[in-house]
Amino acid sequence: MSLIISDILDHLHINDTNEAFSTSSNWGSSPEAEVKEIFSPTDGKKIASVKFATADEYNSVVETAAKAFKTWRSIPAPKRGEIVRQIGEQLRANKKELGTLVSYEMGKSLQEGYGEVQEMIDICDFAVGLSRQLYGLSMHSERPSHRMYEQYHPLGIVGVISAFNFPVAVWSWNAALAWVCGDVCIWKPSEKTPLTAIACQHIAQQVFKANNIDEGVSCLIIGGREIGELMANDTRVPLVSATGSTRMGKAVSAAVGARLGKSLLELGGNNAIIISEQADLDMSLIGAVFGAVGTAGQRCTSTRRLIIHESVYDAFKQKLVNAYKQIKIGNPLDENNHMGPLIDQDAVSLYLASIEKCKAEGGNFVVEGGKLEGDAYASGCYVKPCIAEVENHYEIVQHETFAPILYLIKYKTLEEAIELQNSVPQGLSSAIMTQNLREAETFLSAAGSDCGIANVNIGTSGAEIGGAFGGEKETGGGRESGSDAWKVYMRRQTNTINYSKTLPLAQGIKFDL
Ligand code: UN1
């Protein structure tokens, strides 16, 4: 095991990673469980071996969670918030170690690893406040001496399926809200990043234990697609929140829908920035380059397309080419590097295949891509960020390739730019760079961007947790984290109370006995 990992695990008091599931600070697994070895894309070294949970283990986790729900749901929401506050405090105390582990296990830059833990801290803070604000409306009844109002109750077990690219933050968006709402969570992290999940479960568990909360409010289950399928088909899990590819989301949605369960989907993006003739080009450059190469292009909010006005196209292209020459690629733990590796060698193959496909369709690469070779890149997961001039309708441009490939597209009028921006199957994030109020407001209007997120003079990635996060079309329609996203984790109940001495019927219906 690498030195970095053993230090961090020691710090987090984790002495066993060789387990398949956890409902408490005790870990378990059956002897026949399949063992998977996990390697860091950073240096190719083995990080840990983890066991995949069996279907029986999945069942026992669900049973423990269901039991815990019966107690947890009756603890007052502000008291549940207090426990989430303590989890936030523990994350603050362990930000450096957890951020480093995220960076090492997943390959994002150390700054972004810390940023991801900061998102967790922020959502905990948000959830604490929310725990005193789970408001329902009250209405005036049409009948005398009647009171009508609505209240929100917890749903039960929330299944969280998360992706490798934000291995911990997306879980916390779900878990922190679900917990204050009175739900319990079963988390199936990406099988590519189990160690960060184990670390988070460990941190959360210590807090639950210190507060004498029954085991099962926070559960972790390590496994592959089979576990996700069990969850999606399980009527004991009223809500499944899934982050990942559109393909995975369609399967989850179909299974959950078939049993009339709820799903919250946060799937693929194909995000564009429109660079207007009235853009501040220096600002645009930072937004575009961070959006395209940050997290090595593996955010669902990564910038994949730049739609550039013809009058500034050549100048901006030149700026991009120059900027790409400055990008340092290498070990993400070295803060001098801007970009780390892709998650694994399969991702490298997909990146290379996308480049070939783009070339075959007529794409003109102004910054060439390719796999990086040499000792510093021995894991085989490092690639060069690249830029291609394309047409929006190319098949490859319509796809989300989870890699640092940036497409340039030229436009003449704002209407055309918006049309291009919207002409993809996905609808997560979008942005316009302009100093012109009319352009900005048109982009944000009903006739503008069709995405869940639309920014002005900010890139497509790096959303704050306070807003509702998610997107339309093939992005799945779900909303997580801020605003009123909490409502998805609760069921609404309308209550009408008659405090009169008669029983009048609504709609003036007479029914005398
Ligand atoms: C994701 O890539 O799944 O807006 C989430 C952002 C981050 C979250 C991305 N706050 O880029």
Automatic annotation (TrEMBL):
<dbReference type="InterPro" id="IPR029510">
    <property type="entry name" value="Ald_DH_CS_GLU"/>
</dbReference>
<dbReference type="InterPro" id="IPR016161">
    <property type="entry name" value="Ald_DH/histidinol_DH"/>
</dbReference>
<feature type="domain" description="Aldehyde dehydrogenase">
    <location>
        <begin position="34"/>
        <end position="494"/>
    </location>
</feature>
<keyword id="KW-0520">NAD</keyword>
<dbReference type="InterPro" id="IPR015590">
    <property type="entry name" value="Aldehyde_DH_dom"/>
</dbReference>
<comment type="similarity">
    <text>Belongs to the aldehyde dehydrogenase family.</text>
</comment>
<dbReference type="Pfam" id="PF00171">
    <property type="entry name" value="Aldedh"/>
</dbReference>
<dbReference type="InterPro" id="IPR044638">
    <property type="entry name" value="ALDH7A1-like"/>
</dbReference>
<comment type="subunit">
    <text>Homotetramer.</text>
</comment>
<protein>
    <recommendedName>
        <fullName>aldehyde dehydrogenase (NAD(+))</fullName>
        <ecNumber>1.2.1.3</ecNumber>
    </recommendedName>
</protein>
<dbReference type="InterPro" id="IPR016162">
    <property type="entry name" value="Ald_DH_N"/>
</dbReference>
<feature type="active site">
    <location>
        <position position="266"/>
    </location>
</feature>
<keyword id="KW-0560">Oxidoreductase</keyword>
<dbReference type="GO" id="GO:0004029">
    <property type="term" value="F:aldehyde dehydrogenase (NAD+) activity"/>
</dbReference>
<dbReference type="InterPro" id="IPR016163">
    <property type="entry name" value="Ald_DH_C"/>
</dbReference>
